[in-house]
């Protein structure tokens, strides 16, 4: 007997419109985001989160690694950006965005993603190579003689970085381009050369080339800040949950710690040490950040604090409320 959902009750075709890796400084896992399009035999039926949840549970794989559910779903309402051309294309119809956490080891072995809906036929399966979000470039210093840029990427790559301006500068072969960390590079070049160009080309190995606009003097760096005017998030003690903060420059966060959770009965204070830092994921071009609290992160109910450490060395502490799990 063949088990299969009738075509009238499911999408008859599935495709991945976009598959990207979101930048994250805590590198044990990476956040991937997919835009998946579904088509029904009855073209008047729209593929939405509600429709997707009426079918068997979707399975998401990166290479041979099956991403652990649950996944995040929301109806896709944006335009699609083409990395190499820096152009936006109209929003595709019948699309759902899916988010999941993937171990870095899985991404380095096979950076392609597959989604499949069981019992819905071969057409309800799609595969697409993952794309890294555009590298970022920041002018961090210089004078009339030399200009220094910081180039950052989402996840560490084994391929060498090449920067093209007046010529090709290859990491490891040119003293102008040096690697400063797993995901960070410094590019120092004559200011006279920089002044002749509006764009810079960045490429990793033989992958696609990214065209980045060269930031002008005084442009690009937004001092990181966290919005403290909004209502503080509320989480439940001893529960695995996520909380979100908004602000500016939050892609400059390098660590997040949970602190000052006071046991109301004993008055003792719980502070996570450096090796127990919380997992986090900036998104929306640094305007928001999601922080994951494991089931042992928040033990005591009451008022607590979350401390964000920024790349420039300063810390921002914001309040959070921990509700009782009783």
Verbal overview:
This protein is mostly beta strands and 326 residues long. It folds into three domains: 7-132, Immunoglobulins (Immunoglobulin-like, Sandwich); 136-213, Sandwich (Immunoglobulin-like), CATH 2.60.40; 225-323, Immunoglobulins (Immunoglobulin-like, Sandwich). Helix content is 4%, strand content 48%. It is built from three helices and 29 strands. The chain has helices spanning 49-52, 104-109, 191-194; strands spanning 11-22, 29-40, 59-62, 65-66, 72-75, 80-82, 87-89, 95-103, 112-116, 125-129, 131-132, 136-142, 146-152, 161-164, 168-170, 177-179, 184-190, 199-204, 209-213, 225-226, 234-236, 241-248, 253-259, 261-262, 269-270, 279-283, 288-293, 302-310, 315-323. It has a five-stranded mixed sheet with strand order 5-8-2-1-11. A four-stranded antiparallel sheet has the order 4-3-9-10, with no helix packed on it. Strands 12-13-17-16 form a four-stranded antiparallel sheet. Residues 81-91 and 269-275 have low confidence and may be disordered.
Keywords:
single chain, 326 residues, mainly beta, Immunoglobulin-like, 3 domains, four-stranded antiparallel sheet, 29 strands, 4% helix, 48% strand
Strand content: over 45%
General form: globular
**How many independent structural domains?**
3
Q: Which whole number gives the mean pLDDT? A: 80
Oligomer: single chain
CATH homologous superfamily heading of the largest domain: Immunoglobulins
- Major sheet: order of its strands? 5-8-2-1-11
Q: How far is it from the N-terminal to the C-terminal residue, by CA?
A: 47 Å
Q: The biggest beta sheet, please?
A: 5 strands, mixed
List the uncertain runs. 81-91, 269-275
